[in-house]
Amino acid sequence: MPNATPDITLTARKLKRSFGNQTVIHDVSLQLKRGEVLGLLGHNGAGKSTTMQMLTGCITPDSGTIEVCGIDLVKQPTLAKAHLGYLPETPPLYRELRVNDYLIFAARLRGMSAKDVPEALALTMQRCGLNDKRNQLIGTLSKGYQQRVGIAQAIIHQPAVVILDEPTVGLDPTQIREIRTLIRELGNQHSVILSTHLLGEVESICDRVEIMQQGKLIYGDTSARMQRYGQVSGFTISFRNPPALSILQGVSGVSRIEQVNANQFRILHSAEQNPSAELLTLAAQYDWQLEQLTPLQTRLEDVFVQITDEQNAGVQP
Description:
Distance between the termini: 39 Å
Radius of gyration: 25 Å
Low-confidence stretches: none
Mean pLDDT: 89
Largest sheet: 6 strands, mixed
CATH topology of the largest domain: Rossmann fold
Structural class: alpha/beta
Number of helices: 11
CATH architecture of the largest domain: 3-Layer(aba) Sandwich
CATH superfamily of the largest domain: P-loop containing nucleotide triphosphate hydrolases
Strand order of the largest sheet: 6-7-8-3-9-10
Number of strands: 14
Shape: elongated
């Protein structure tokens, strides 16, 4: 029931996990808010899947606590898991079942009463775009539709928290776009944790980002702020009849300049003093024949590399 869902739907504190003598998760703490899509970002092997398996109760942490809607997942697992939906990287599908029968089975496994299943099934089929596939064998569906069925089994009982591990891996571009749209819509009614190593996933659907590296969370902020991390003020400018580099270097406000090619320059400046207006005036005055002026945009790939490199170098983000 949406009104009964607390503002903080999931809290993990100081999670640790080892396999044999190797510690793979180190003091991971995170929090998920109602209606939020959180992206858990990291290279393959960073510890994302292990963390998600702990958050869903599939494996227990060696130490630390997890609460789902205020319920301790270790002490009251059945009660806590009633508020969770989980799609592992390999969807738990029975390929020989029809979509309709499989989702009824999933609903009953989640403890739903027989009388509540039809309404939940109809809603989930509609939300996941499966109405036309209800009587089809799961094994005959495309990878994209199988992924939809995997998401459907995770949300059919209307959990407060939905956890998705690499939900678009192996899909073609059209399927990826459709699944991302579905996940974004899920964020309107559920809290979602999404693990990925695809930066486009973060840009298109996540409200907030946590970056994981070598079993540790090394950075956390909103998706918008992450994209501004380490951002520089500047622009590229090109002229048909360019001036000497020394002339551009002498323009007030230019802090650094590099020549990209014979006609194009990359100019950096302070946030307080933008020299673009003066350059436009000079270009007109001296017939430099301005062709293009484009503000620099930081790519998310560059931000991710910068944050992880700083962590490797011992710099605190």
